[in-house]
Protein backbone atom coordinates (compact mmCIF):
# COMPACT_ATOMS: atom_id res chain seq x y z
CA UNK A 1 0.00 0.00 0.00
CA UNK A 2 1.34 3.40 -1.01
CA UNK A 3 0.08 6.54 0.74
CA UNK A 4 0.99 10.22 0.42
CA UNK A 5 0.47 12.52 3.42
CA UNK A 6 0.22 16.31 3.15
CA UNK A 7 0.54 19.02 5.81
CA UNK A 8 -0.85 22.10 4.06
CA UNK A 9 0.27 25.44 5.44
CA UNK A 10 -0.09 29.02 4.29
CA UNK A 11 3.29 29.27 2.58
CA UNK A 12 4.45 25.67 2.21
CA UNK A 13 3.20 22.09 2.03
CA UNK A 14 5.13 19.33 3.80
CA UNK A 15 4.70 15.88 2.32
CA UNK A 16 5.88 12.34 2.74
CA UNK A 17 5.27 9.05 0.96
CA UNK A 18 4.69 5.82 2.88
CA UNK A 19 4.89 2.40 1.27
CA UNK A 20 4.01 -0.73 3.23
CA UNK A 21 4.44 1.17 6.48
CA UNK A 22 7.88 2.56 5.57
CA UNK A 23 8.66 6.23 4.89
CA UNK A 24 10.24 6.17 1.44
CA UNK A 25 10.31 9.87 0.48
CA UNK A 26 9.57 13.28 1.95
CA UNK A 27 9.89 16.93 1.05
CA UNK A 28 8.47 20.41 1.08
CA UNK A 29 6.66 22.38 -1.62
CA UNK A 30 7.07 26.13 -1.33
CA UNK A 31 4.58 28.60 -2.75
CA UNK A 32 1.99 27.57 -5.34
CA UNK A 33 0.26 24.20 -5.01
CA UNK A 34 1.19 23.30 -8.61
CA UNK A 35 4.45 22.04 -7.15
CA UNK A 36 2.50 19.03 -5.86
CA UNK A 37 2.39 17.67 -9.41
CA UNK A 38 6.01 16.56 -9.01
CA UNK A 39 5.21 14.32 -6.03
CA UNK A 40 5.46 10.51 -6.37
CA UNK A 41 1.74 9.89 -6.83
CA UNK A 42 2.14 6.87 -9.13
CA UNK A 43 0.54 3.82 -7.54
CA UNK A 44 -0.81 5.82 -4.59
CA UNK A 45 -3.96 4.33 -3.08
CA UNK A 46 -4.80 7.23 -0.76
CA UNK A 47 -3.82 10.78 0.15
CA UNK A 48 -4.17 11.97 3.75
CA UNK A 49 -4.40 15.71 4.36
CA UNK A 50 -3.91 17.99 7.34
CA UNK A 51 -4.81 21.56 6.43
CA UNK A 52 -4.88 24.66 8.59
CA UNK A 53 -5.45 27.07 5.72
CA UNK A 54 -9.00 26.50 4.45
CA UNK A 55 -10.30 28.83 1.76
CA UNK A 56 -8.92 29.02 -1.76
CA UNK A 57 -5.55 27.38 -1.05
CA UNK A 58 -7.17 24.26 0.36
CA UNK A 59 -9.55 24.16 -2.60
CA UNK A 60 -6.60 24.40 -4.99
CA UNK A 61 -5.01 21.35 -3.33
CA UNK A 62 -8.17 19.23 -3.47
CA UNK A 63 -8.92 20.36 -7.05
CA UNK A 64 -5.45 19.22 -8.11
CA UNK A 65 -5.94 15.84 -6.44
CA UNK A 66 -9.34 15.50 -8.12
CA UNK A 67 -7.72 16.32 -11.47
CA UNK A 68 -5.13 13.60 -10.86
CA UNK A 69 -7.90 11.13 -10.00
CA UNK A 70 -6.65 10.56 -6.46
CA UNK A 71 -8.79 9.66 -3.46
CA UNK A 72 -8.08 11.76 -0.39
CA UNK A 73 -9.19 12.15 3.22
CA UNK A 74 -9.12 15.42 5.15
CA UNK A 75 -8.43 15.21 8.88
CA UNK A 76 -10.59 17.20 11.29
CA UNK A 77 -10.50 17.75 15.03
CA UNK A 78 -12.68 15.25 16.89
CA UNK A 79 -14.18 14.94 20.35
CA UNK A 80 -12.05 11.87 21.09
CA UNK A 81 -9.57 9.70 19.24
CA UNK A 82 -7.02 7.03 20.26
CA UNK A 83 -7.59 7.91 23.91
CA UNK A 84 -7.16 11.68 23.55
CA UNK A 85 -10.17 13.79 24.58
CA UNK A 86 -10.61 17.27 23.13
CA UNK A 87 -11.01 20.01 25.76
CA UNK A 88 -12.86 22.45 23.50
CA UNK A 89 -16.63 22.76 23.90
CA UNK A 90 -16.80 23.23 20.12
CA UNK A 91 -14.31 20.53 19.12
CA UNK A 92 -14.04 21.75 15.53
CA UNK A 93 -12.57 25.06 16.69
CA UNK A 94 -9.35 23.36 17.83
CA UNK A 95 -6.78 23.67 15.07
CA UNK A 96 -6.33 20.34 13.31
CA UNK A 97 -2.53 20.68 13.44
CA UNK A 98 -2.67 20.91 17.23
CA UNK A 99 -5.08 17.97 17.41
CA UNK A 100 -2.95 15.73 15.20
CA UNK A 101 0.22 16.61 17.10
CA UNK A 102 -1.48 15.66 20.37
CA UNK A 103 -2.71 12.36 18.92
CA UNK A 104 0.79 11.52 17.72
CA UNK A 105 2.45 12.53 20.99
CA UNK A 106 0.02 10.59 23.19
CA UNK A 107 0.21 7.54 20.91
CA UNK A 108 4.00 7.58 21.23
CA UNK A 109 4.15 8.24 24.99
CA UNK A 110 0.95 6.66 26.36
CA UNK A 111 1.42 9.09 29.23
CA UNK A 112 1.04 12.75 30.12
CA UNK A 113 2.66 15.00 27.55
CA UNK A 114 3.28 18.60 26.59
CA UNK A 115 3.18 19.28 22.86
CA UNK A 116 5.02 22.29 21.42
CA UNK A 117 4.69 23.31 17.76
CA UNK A 118 7.02 26.17 16.87
CA UNK A 119 5.92 27.43 13.48
CA UNK A 120 4.34 30.67 12.28
CA UNK A 121 2.51 30.50 15.59
CA UNK A 122 3.90 28.89 18.72
CA UNK A 123 1.34 26.49 20.18
CA UNK A 124 1.68 24.58 23.43
CA UNK A 125 -0.84 21.93 24.47
CA UNK A 126 -1.13 19.86 27.64
CA UNK A 127 -2.43 16.28 27.79
CA UNK A 128 -2.75 14.40 31.08
CA UNK A 129 -1.97 10.73 31.72
CA UNK A 130 -5.58 9.76 30.95
CA UNK A 131 -5.45 11.44 27.54
CA UNK A 132 -7.52 14.47 28.52
CA UNK A 133 -6.50 17.67 26.78
CA UNK A 134 -6.10 20.19 29.59
CA UNK A 135 -5.81 23.28 27.42
CA UNK A 136 -3.01 25.17 25.77
CA UNK A 137 -1.51 28.41 24.52
CA UNK A 138 -1.19 30.16 21.15
CA UNK A 139 1.47 32.84 20.70
CA UNK A 140 3.13 34.63 17.81
CA UNK A 141 6.03 32.59 16.47
CA UNK A 142 9.49 33.88 15.58
CA UNK A 143 8.60 35.14 12.10
CA UNK A 144 5.46 36.91 13.34
CA UNK A 145 7.40 38.65 16.11
CA UNK A 146 9.76 40.10 13.50
CA UNK A 147 6.88 41.05 11.22
CA UNK A 148 5.12 42.97 14.00
CA UNK A 149 8.29 44.79 15.05
CA UNK A 150 9.01 45.70 11.44
CA UNK A 151 5.52 46.89 10.56
CA UNK A 152 4.21 48.36 13.81
CA UNK A 153 7.20 50.35 15.05
CA UNK A 154 8.65 53.47 13.52
CA UNK A 155 12.26 53.32 14.61
CA UNK A 156 13.10 49.68 15.30
CA UNK A 157 15.09 48.78 12.20
CA UNK A 158 17.04 45.55 12.12
CA UNK A 159 18.90 43.32 9.72
CA UNK A 160 19.44 39.60 9.41
CA UNK A 161 20.33 37.29 12.25
CA UNK A 162 24.02 36.46 12.67
CA UNK A 163 23.62 33.80 15.38
CA UNK A 164 20.83 32.33 17.48
CA UNK A 165 21.36 33.18 21.15
CA UNK A 166 19.66 34.27 24.37
CA UNK A 167 22.38 36.71 25.46
CA UNK A 168 21.54 40.41 25.83
CA UNK A 169 22.13 42.11 22.49
CA UNK A 170 24.85 44.68 21.86
CA UNK A 171 23.22 46.05 18.70
CA UNK A 172 19.64 46.54 17.57
CA UNK A 173 19.95 43.47 15.34
CA UNK A 174 21.05 41.31 18.28
CA UNK A 175 18.49 42.85 20.64
CA UNK A 176 15.63 42.04 18.28
CA UNK A 177 16.70 38.53 17.30
CA UNK A 178 17.89 37.43 20.74
CA UNK A 179 14.80 39.04 22.26
CA UNK A 180 12.62 37.04 19.89
CA UNK A 181 14.18 33.78 21.06
CA UNK A 182 14.24 34.60 24.76
CA UNK A 183 10.56 35.50 24.55
CA UNK A 184 9.67 32.15 22.96
CA UNK A 185 11.92 30.08 25.23
CA UNK A 186 10.59 31.97 28.25
CA UNK A 187 7.01 31.32 27.16
CA UNK A 188 7.71 27.60 26.79
CA UNK A 189 9.36 27.43 30.22
CA UNK A 190 6.45 29.29 31.84
CA UNK A 191 3.90 27.05 30.10
CA UNK A 192 5.69 23.92 31.28
CA UNK A 193 5.73 25.29 34.83
CA UNK A 194 1.97 25.89 34.65
CA UNK A 195 1.43 22.45 33.13
CA UNK A 196 3.20 20.77 36.05
CA UNK A 197 0.61 22.23 38.43
CA UNK A 198 -2.06 20.47 36.34
CA UNK A 199 -0.53 17.15 35.26
CA UNK A 200 2.29 16.69 37.76
CA UNK A 201 5.98 16.18 37.10
CA UNK A 202 5.85 12.94 35.12
CA UNK A 203 5.36 13.80 31.46
CA UNK A 204 7.10 13.79 28.08
CA UNK A 205 7.72 16.97 26.11
CA UNK A 206 7.37 16.73 22.32
CA UNK A 207 8.48 19.58 20.09
CA UNK A 208 7.98 20.07 16.37
CA UNK A 209 7.67 22.85 13.78
CA UNK A 210 10.10 24.84 11.68
CA UNK A 211 11.70 26.49 14.72
CA UNK A 212 11.34 23.46 16.97
CA UNK A 213 14.97 22.39 16.76
CA UNK A 214 16.18 25.92 17.52
CA UNK A 215 13.99 26.19 20.62
CA UNK A 216 15.10 22.72 21.69
CA UNK A 217 18.74 23.79 21.49
CA UNK A 218 18.27 27.22 23.10
CA UNK A 219 16.27 25.83 26.03
CA UNK A 220 19.47 24.25 27.36
CA UNK A 221 19.68 21.46 29.90
CA UNK A 222 15.96 21.51 30.62
CA UNK A 223 15.36 20.31 27.06
CA UNK A 224 17.72 17.33 27.16
CA UNK A 225 14.80 14.97 27.68
CA UNK A 226 12.53 16.62 25.10
CA UNK A 227 11.62 14.61 22.03
CA UNK A 228 12.05 16.52 18.76
CA UNK A 229 9.73 15.07 16.09
CA UNK A 230 10.02 16.79 12.73
CA UNK A 231 6.79 15.29 11.36
CA UNK A 232 4.62 15.14 14.47
CA UNK A 233 1.54 16.58 12.71
CA UNK A 234 1.87 14.08 9.85
CA UNK A 235 2.34 11.30 12.43
CA UNK A 236 -1.15 12.08 13.72
CA UNK A 237 -2.86 11.57 10.36
CA UNK A 238 -3.05 7.78 10.38
CA UNK A 239 -4.57 7.43 13.88
CA UNK A 240 -6.97 10.32 13.22
CA UNK A 241 -8.26 8.97 9.93
CA UNK A 242 -8.24 5.29 10.85
CA UNK A 243 -10.51 6.12 13.82
CA UNK A 244 -12.65 8.68 11.98
Could you name the key traits of this structure?
244 residues; alpha/beta; Nucleotidyltransferase, domain 5; 2 domains; 5-stranded mixed β-sheet; 27% strand; potassium; Type III pantothenate kinase; transferase; ATP-binding
Q: Can you give me a brief rundown of this structure?
A:
The protein is of the alpha/beta class and 244 residues long. It has seven helices and twelve strands.
**Average of pLDDT:** 94
What share of the residues does DSSP label as strand, in percent? 25-35%
Radius of gyration: 19 Å
Our count of helices gives: 7
Number of domains: 2
CATH topology annotation of the largest domain: Nucleotidyltransferase, domain 5
Which range best describes the helical content: under 10%, 10-25%, 25-40%, 40-55%, 55-70% or over 70%? 25-40%
CATH architecture of the largest domain: 2-Layer Sandwich
Q: Provide the low-confidence segments as ranges.
A: none
> Order of strands across the widest beta sheet?
3-2-1-4-5
What is the element string, with H for helices and E for strands?
EEEEHEEEHEEEHHEHEHH
Q: Profile the largest sheet.
A: 5 strands, mixed
Give the full name of the CATH homologous superfamily of the largest domain: ATPase, nucleotide binding domain
Q: What is the terminal-to-terminal distance? A: 19 Å
Total strand segments: 12
